[in-house]
Design brief:
363 residues, alpha/beta, ten-stranded parallel β-sheet, 15 helices, 10 strands, 44% helix, Leu-rich_rpt_Cys-con_subtyp, FBXL15_LRR, F-box SKP2A-like, F-box_dom
Length: 363
Amino acid sequence: MRETESLGLCFENMLIFGGGAGGGGRWRISEWKDIPAELLLRILSLVDDRTVVVASGVCHGWRDAISWGLTHISLSWCKKNMNNLVLSFVPNFTKLQVLILRQDAPQLQDNAVETIASYCHDLQELDLSKSFKLTDHSLYTIAHGCPDLTKLNISGCSAFSDSALAYLSRFCRKLKFLNLCGCVKAATDRALKAIGFNCNQLQSLNLGWCDHVGDEGVKSLAYGCPDLRALDLCGCLLITDESVIALANNCLHLRSLDLYYCQNITDRAMYSLAQSRVKNKHETWDSPKNEYEDEGLTNLNISQCTALTPPAVQALCDSFPALHTCPGRHSLIISGCLNLTSVHCACAVQPHRAANLLSHLAH
C-alpha cells in the first residue's frame, strides 16, 4: 500500500509541475494507462526500487515502458521469496545493466541465475553475495549469458568450485571488479592463474579469508593484471614475501593492499614496495601525470603481521606520503603490531618536531 501511495503522490506532483506538449504545463491524462513512457520513467526515478517493481505490475503498458527504460535495480530489500521475484520480474527487463541481489539469508537458487543469464545479456554489474545455495551451474550460465560483466560480487558463495570460476574467467574477460571474499573452494591458485591469464583488465580483487590462495596464484595475478588497483589478501595465510614482491614489481598502479594476518610477510616485502615507488617514478617520468597517479599506495593493512620491524615499515611510509598513521586519517593500519608503534607518517612527524623545537626555544 505504501508503494501505491508513493507512486500516486509522485504522479500528482508531475501533473502539477510537469509539462506536456499542448498541455499548458500538464499532460492530458484520464487513466493510469495513459501516462506517457517519458513521464512514467520520470516518476519512477523519484521512488525506490520496491515501488518500481510494484509499478511494473500495474498494466502491460507500464511494464513495457519500464522494460524499455530500466537499467539499474536492486532487489536486496526483498527478505522473502527473492528467487520467485527474480523468476517473474527479470524476463520482462532485458535492458538491465546493474542487478543487485544481496541477501541477509540465502534465497537465490540456480534457476534464478539461469533466468538472469538467459535474458540480461547487457548486464555489467551483478551482486550475488551470500548466495549460499548457488552451485557451479550458476557460474556456467553467467559465463555464457553475461559476457560484458565488469563487476561481479560472489562473496560468501562457498559452494562454487575453482574449476567453475576458471571457466567463468574464459568468457567474462572484461571483469574489472571481482569479490571472492569467503569463496574458499573457488579461490585457489588454479583459479587465480586462469583469472590472471583471461581477465587482464582487472582492477580490484577481494580474496579475503580464502585460505587456499598461495604465492603461485598471486604471482599469476601480478603478471597478468598490471592495472590492479586494490587487492584484499586478509587471512590468506599461505602467502609470503614472494607475492608482495611480484605485486610491487608488476602492479605499479596498486593503491590499496590488505595483508591482515599474513604472518609470513617480512621486511623484505616492505622494502620491495618502497622501492616500487622509485621504479614507478622513473617509468612515468616522461608521461603525463595527475594527482591520482602520483600518490602511489594510499591504503595498507599490515595488522597482525608480527614479523615486520619499524625501519622497514617506516621506509615504506616515507616512500608513500598518502599512507597515514595520524588520528582520523588511518590508512596505514598496524593493529596488533606493538613493535611498530614508533612508525609515523610525515604529517604526524612534523608537529612532533615543531613541538620539540618550541620546547628547545623555551629553554
